[in-house]
Automatic annotation (TrEMBL):
This is Lipoprotein. It comes from Nannocystis radixulma.
Length: 363
């Protein structure tokens, strides 16, 4: 959440003496952590690249030097005791600084690019750009039948906003009107919303009424899930897997100290990000298997491979699959985000593969 807490700047500065030391220095972000919290080796680079891509989206330069963003990853106790964030939340962004009980949390980094104002549109753009995180399955619903946009639009504070609905509507506005038009409108959305005040901004900035926008969204995009409308800046720009379109296999180590390991999401989720181009639509077999982790314990509950189709709501039906051992899936041609998931607590080796099933249809 963005906390519209400029009056609390004095409190932030007063808390700085007791906040943890900044231990990690990135190109665009500095990170402090509570004692006992350890980032995966690729987390700082992930955050730096996310900031670079967000800056490119918004047409600004990423912060460097003394202007870098600051990110505090804190235990729940430290979060409550040392930050000016509301106790009801687990993260907030205030004046180029993120306070969070999770790391990385790209949702909060988005807030650092967004002017403080409307809860609905501020949270909506953060959800639209937040990425898929570390969960094997999207934490936001994959099946949407109806969205109540009006009640969230008129909510004056974040706790009245349905985040997924706000994200879906903002993603529609970005696609419909473009990023520059949305950026121009964003600081004009009222802090205390009414239909009349919001409608005025829509007519002036988008050339269409608020009611017409909501109606068009409901007719064309209401059922589009977060899996599709999210921009997936990191997932769909990750290093590409080189393969022949028929078979790919890799054997590698999964551990928190691997340079491309991102996390620990929600305290324990490690993710490796790749992209995969599927040249031919068809059926494919996905397989993943792990060796016993170092230490002997056979912990594979969190080991999985997931595929999510890149693109947005206008690029066909959303496609997302996950397997914990083996599965056969039907994939349209296109680019996919391929993610390897594991617990950040284990040190193991994993073999995974993707194999196209031969077409046996008589010709």
């Amino acid at each position: 959440m963005t906390a519209r807490l400029l009056p609390l700047l004095a409190l932030v500065l007063a808390a700085c003496d007791t906040l943890p030391e900044l231990r990690h220095e990135g190109r665009h972000v500095r990170i402090g952590t509570s004692p006992g919290l350890e980032l995966c080796a690729g987390a700082v680079e992930h955050m730096d690249r996310f900031i670079e891509r967000m800056a490119a989206e918004f047409g600004v330069e990423p912060p460097t030097g003394d202007a870098r963003f600051t990110y505090y990853w804190l235990t729940r106790e430290d979060f409550i005791d040392l930050t000016p964030c509301p106790r009801e939340v687990s993260a907030c962004a205030i004046i180029e600084t993120v306070f969070s009980t999770e790391a990385p949390l790209d949702h909060e980094l988005v807030h650092l690019f967004v002017p403080d104002g409307s809860s609905f549109f501020g949270e909506g753009i953060a959800v639209a750009y937040e990425g898929l995180g570390g969960a094997v399955e999207d934490t936001r619903s994959a099946e949407v039948k109806r969205r109540d946009i009006w009640s969230s639009l008129l909510a004056p504070l974040w706790f009245g906003v349905r985040y997924d609905d706000a994200g879906a509507f903002v993603a529609y506005l970005l696609d419909r009107h473009g990023i520059p038009a949305f950026q121009a409108a964003l600081p004009k959305f009222p802090f205390v919303p009414t239909r009349a005040r919001l409608d005025r901004v829509f007519r002036e900035e988008f050339g269409v009424s608020l009611a017409a926008s909501v109606a068009e969204f409901a007719g064309a995009r209401e059922r589009c899930p977060h899996l599709a409308y999210d921009r997936k800046l990191m997932e769909c720009n990750a290093p590409a897997i080189a393969w022949d379109g028929e078979h790919h296999a890799e054997y590698r180590r999964l551990a928190a100290d691997e340079p491309d390991a991102v996390g620990p999401y929600r305290g324990d989720e490690l993710v490796i990000l790749r992209t995969l181009e599927v040249p031919t639509a068809g059926d494919y077999v996905l397989e993943i298997v792990g060796d016993p982790p170092v230490g002997g314990s056979n912990i594979f509950a969190d080991l999985a491979l997931s595929l999510v189709r890149c693109g947005g709501c206008d690029d066909g039906e959303p496609v997302g699959f996950a397997v914990e051992s083996e599965g056969r899936v039907t994939l349209p041609a296109g680019r996919y985000s391929l993610r390897l998931h594991a617990s950040a607590r284990i040190d193991t080796r994993v073999a995974y593969s993707l194999t196209r099933v031969a077409d046996t249809t008589p010709r």
